[in-house]
């Protein structure tokens, strides 16, 4: 990697006020909403356990030395420090994209920050971009899926300049060269859809960084840096995360996320519906029945116990400043 000096100031910033997060989870039954004013009670009760932090749209809380919590039904869940939990107790905090994102970027680990800032300079963010769709792509596994996934975003109802697609093609060190088929399929889609803003970044990673947390963290941090370098903080930026094997995206997908965030400034994160394709259910009706029953039970539980909600990896969106203020992905 080419060396560069981070251009962000590394001086201290005012952290007297801290962010909280509200989470909206629309599904077929209802809209479950946790406002910021509820954060104090919920986090006090659960002491910031990561499972419940997810429910509040808090993404992954940064904690260099987390303690391990092992409830009977959940293993390997990390607990945040009490100091970090206390930092979420200000429901009146007003997010400031410039301040919050700058503070977040300056506090990244030096090597990671250098990689992020250098890479962010390679492909600047379009001036009219409001939302970024971030997709980790396994270089050796997604050749058969990636074109179909990208094609799901080809006919969005909104101006294509309003959003971009960020691909992070990841390859483990010593595993060989990236799958030519993946790269060829991405290039084919870019050629077929020149009006879309599709950016593909390739990461050569060691085993330690092949965890899904890092595979989501790097391209998301990269997107924050590109937004910061653009220099327009008149509006917050929106981040959507999804997977490389998702398809069947509604033509109003991007427009709905932008509209919901714009009309609800108190909402920091949104979760859309996620389902399996009907052709997969057709192989076994019992699987269809079981999945639908599970969806009903979980939707009912979400209504009664919204603090217990844990998001999946796809079709989740959050404000860039909220992501930054809570410390990003672990």
Question: How would you explain this protein's 3D organization?
Answer:
The protein is an alpha/beta fold and 330 residues long. It has helices at 39-46, 50-55, 82-86, 97-106, 110-120, 146-151, 180-192, 212-230, 253-263, 278-281, 285-304, 320-325, and strands spanning 23-26, 31-34, 67-69, 77-79, 131-138, 163-172, 198-205, 238-241, 269-271, 316-319. The longest helix is centred in the C-terminal third of the chain and has 20 residues, at 285-304. The radius of gyration is 20 Å and the shape is globular. It starts with 22 loop residues before the first strand and ends in a 5-residue tail after the last helix.
Poorly predicted sequence stretches spanning 5 or more consecutive residues: 1-80
Biggest sheet architecture: 8 strands, mixed
Count of individual beta strands: 10
- Average pLDDT, to the nearest integer? 71
Order of helices and strands: EEHHEEHHHEHEHEHEHEHHEH
In the sheet with the most strands, the strands line up as 2-1-9-10-8-5-6-7
- Alpha-beta content class: alpha/beta
Task: Specify Rg, calculated over alpha carbons.
Answer: 20 Å
> Approximately how much helix is present in the residues?
25-40%
What fraction of residues sit in β-strands? Answer: 15-25%
In whole angstroms, the N-to-C terminal distance is: 23 Å
């Amino acid at each position: 990697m080419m060396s560069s000096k981070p251009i962000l100031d590394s001086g201290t910033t005012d952290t007297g006020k801290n962010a909280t997060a509200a989470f909206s989870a629309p599904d077929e039954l209802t809209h479950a909403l946790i406002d910021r004013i509820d954060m104090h009670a919920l986090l006090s009760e659960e002491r910031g356990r990561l499972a419940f932090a997810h429910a509040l749209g808090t993404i992954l809380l940064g904690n260099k030395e987390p303690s391990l919590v092992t409830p009977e039904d959940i293993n390997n869940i990390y607990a945040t420090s009490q100091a970090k939990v206390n930092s979420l107790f200000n429901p009146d905090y007003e997010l400031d994209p410039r301040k919050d994102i700058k503070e977040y970027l300056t506090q990244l680990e030096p090597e990671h920050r250098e990689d992020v800032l250098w890479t962010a300079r390679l492909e600047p963010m379009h001036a009219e971009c409001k939302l970024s769709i971030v997709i980790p792509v396994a270089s050796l596994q997604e050749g058969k899926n990636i074109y179909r996934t990208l094609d799901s975003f080809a006919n969005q109802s909104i101006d294509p300049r309003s959003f971009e697609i960020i691909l992070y093609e990841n390859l483990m060190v010593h595993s060989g060269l990236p799958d030519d088929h993946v790269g060829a399929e991405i290039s084919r889609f870019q050629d077929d859809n020149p009006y879309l803003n599709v950016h593909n970044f390739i990461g050569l990673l060691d085993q330690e960084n092949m965890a899904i947390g890092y595979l989501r963290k790097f391209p998301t941090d990269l997107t924050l840096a590109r937004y910061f370098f653009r220099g327009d903080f008149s509006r917050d930026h929106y981040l959507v995360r999804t997977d490389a094997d998702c398809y069947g995206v509604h033509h109003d997908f991007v427009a709905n996320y932008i509209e919901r965030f714009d009309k609800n400034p108190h909402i920091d994160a949104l979760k859309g519906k996620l389902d399996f394709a009907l052709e997969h259910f057709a192989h076994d009706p019992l699987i269809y029945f079981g999945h639908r029953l599970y969806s009903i039970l979980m939707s009912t539980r979400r209504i009664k116990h919204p603090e217990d909600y844990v998001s999946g990896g796809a079709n989740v969106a959050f404000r860039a400043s909220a992501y930054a203020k809570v410390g990003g992905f672990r």
